[in-house]
Amino acid sequence: MGFFTKDAVPAPGASGGLAPLSKERIKAALEREGWSYNVDSDGDIGGGWEYGSFFFFVNGEQDEMLCVRGFWRGRLEESDYLRALELCNTWNSEKIWPKVYVGRDDEGKGRLNAELNVDYEPGITDEQLSQHLRCAINTGMSFFELVNETFPEVWAQYRPAD
Question: Within a 13 Å sphere around the CA of 25, how many CA atoms are in the beta-carbon half?
C-alpha cells in the first residue's frame, strides 16, 4: 500500500519530486518544450512567440515566485486606450488567468500584457513547471489573439513577416 508512509513521498529533487524553483530549471523546462529563449544582461529569461514576447522571472525572498509575463507585439495609440482597458476588464472578469492589463511604454504607447504568477515555496516538480509554462504561454497567446482581432489595423503593422 504505502500511500501514507514516508516511502511514498518522493525525495526533494528526485524524479517527480518537489525541488526549489530556479532560473536553471526554467531554462531546462523551456528546452524540454523545444522553445527558444535568450538570457539578457540582467539574467532575465525571455523568448518570442508569434503574437508577443514572454519573460520568465523568479521573485520572492526565497526565489519561490514564478512570474510569466507576456507583452503583445503591438503598440496602441491613446485613442485606443479605453477600448483596450475594456477588453482587459472583460477578459479578467470572464477568465481565471492570465491576469491581463494595459500599460504604457516610454513613448506613451499602450502596451497589452498577460501575466501568471504562482508561489512555489514548497517546491515544484518538473512536470508542474512545464505545465505552468505551457498554461501561461498558451492562455497569454489566446488573449493576444483576441487583441489582434480587436485591433486588426494595429496588428497588421506589427505582425511578423511570414
Answer: 22
Q: Please determine, for residue 5, whether its predicted confidence score (pLDDT) is greater than 60.
A: no
Give the pairing of strands 110-119 and 99-104.
antiparallel
Q: Which of 89, 72, 47, 92 is closest to 140 using CA atoms?
A: 72
- Pinpoint the alpha helices (H) of 4-125: 23-33, 81-94
Q: CA–CA separation, 41 vs 53, rounded Å?
A: 17
pLDDT digits (tens, 9 = 90+) for 86-103: 999 999 999 999 999 999
C-alpha distance from residue 129 to each of 51, 55, 98 (Å): 22, 14, 16
Give the pLDDT of residue 88: 98
Cβ of 4: how many Cβ atoms within 10 Å? 8
